[in-house]
Amino acid sequence: MFNYFLKNLSILKKFLFINLLVFIVIMTFAIFYLKSIQPSLIIAKTKNHIQIIENTIDHIRRLNVNFNEDQIKKFLTSTRFLFQDLNRVIIFDNNFNLIGDTNTLDLDPRSFSKNIQIIEMNISAEEQDTEKDLIKQKDKLSLKNTLINYSNSVEFGKPFTFTDENYNQFLMITVKNVSKGEENVGYLAIVETANDIKAAINERKIFVIRTAFVVAIVIFIFSFVLNRYFLKPIKNLVNFTKNIKEKNKNKVNLDHLKLRNDELGTLSKSLDLMTKNLNNRITTAKNFSSDLVHEIRNPLASLKSASEIINDTESKKDREKLVKIVSHDVERIERLITDYSQMLKDEAAISSEKMNIIDLQTIAKSVVDDFNNIYNSKRNISIKLLLNGKKNYKIFGIENRLEQIIANLLDNSISFSKNDQSIYVELKEIDNNKINLSVIDEGEGFKERDTEKIFKRFYSNRPTKFGEHSGLGLNIVKNLVELHSGTILASNNKGKNGAKVEIIFPKA
What we know:
Layout: H1 2-7, H2 11-63, H3 69-78, E1 88-93, E2 98-101, H4 143-151, E3 160-166, E4 169-180, E5 183-193, H5 195-245, H6 255-258, H7 263-310, H8 316-352, E6 356-359, H9 360-378, E7 382-387, E8 394-397, H10 399-415, E9 422-430, E10 434-440, H11 473-483, E11 487-492, E12 499-506
Helix pairs in contact: 2-5, 5-7, 7-8, 9-10, 10-11
């Protein structure tokens, strides 16, 4: 149940709820602590009272003091040093008559009053067990009544301490009977204003309240910071992905998140880049599919026309022409589908491939050697690798994709080259941070004024004697070059026949 409740809460609400629980637990312990303070402090002072009472009773017994006003006054006067840290010491005889009070030692002996009402004290009255609690009155109780209750209780013969708050004064009173042999001769009461206990309790209460207030403020500030700088950005990222999932046109702007230098900034950049790449792939796939349909439509129309009239054609020569058209169109369609399928496979493979530091010179030499082995013997076409000195030709890239780039460029140059001609693959450094890869042939060059056309999908102007092509080769090259953060440019070789394709890669 609890786990289900937490699962349905936001991160902020979970944080506040957990902190609330912790706060409640802390405050519960604090309340129990405050409640235990007063008894602990009272016990400590009670021990001191008991020690003084025991010493006083021992002196009374040793000096054989009789419990009358004259002897008790003399005793109190002679032993005042015992009570210097106490507010008041009061002595009663066995009949609960006042016979000594330290508050009256400096007064005339006649000022001793036997009326116990002069020391009345307010005592809180609560209904408790009669044998365990001596104070049961609802209104003002005199110390005399307390002593009477004490004499009739099971606590008789033992020190008994009770407290009272009167006029903002916290009083501690400890009483005990005085006996000589088997006979009880009177009672001794010690009264102390223990405001230090009240002050200590109040001090701790204030400390707990202040601590609770500070903790609450800290939780509030931390919650605000958590929500402002962490949870809100995360919510924006969630909304961003949700809009993508639901194809919502209301886009969430992540520009301010991408400026962050922490993990959320990195996540925002990665998510935004992934989304853009995904959208680009979707757009490319749509455009590609549209182009493919357009390219297939023409051979299909030709194929349909040829198939419709082939049965009605009586001439053998015409029938052979129609069969050749049908075969050519079928091959064209097959080639388009095959190349398109391969391109999609390459796109999927590229997304899972990692870039490493690659020596472009090694890659170029390997491809050049392979092409020389094929076309040098067939058509006497020589492919030469030109290096501008011993330089560093290392870039970040995917090895097999770089091979594919060079191979497609060489394949295109060979299509426009005559036998016995040469093709040059040149590597050179530019500005110490870029590498230029050029493929130069000695063919007819590009006929188009706008050389950007040659990089479009399904565009091909190769001579028919070199076979039909789908027109995807240079488009694939362009995409692979951009994948490696490079740029590609096509031009005719100035002053000479032939074409030149230049690729500029950033240096590793």
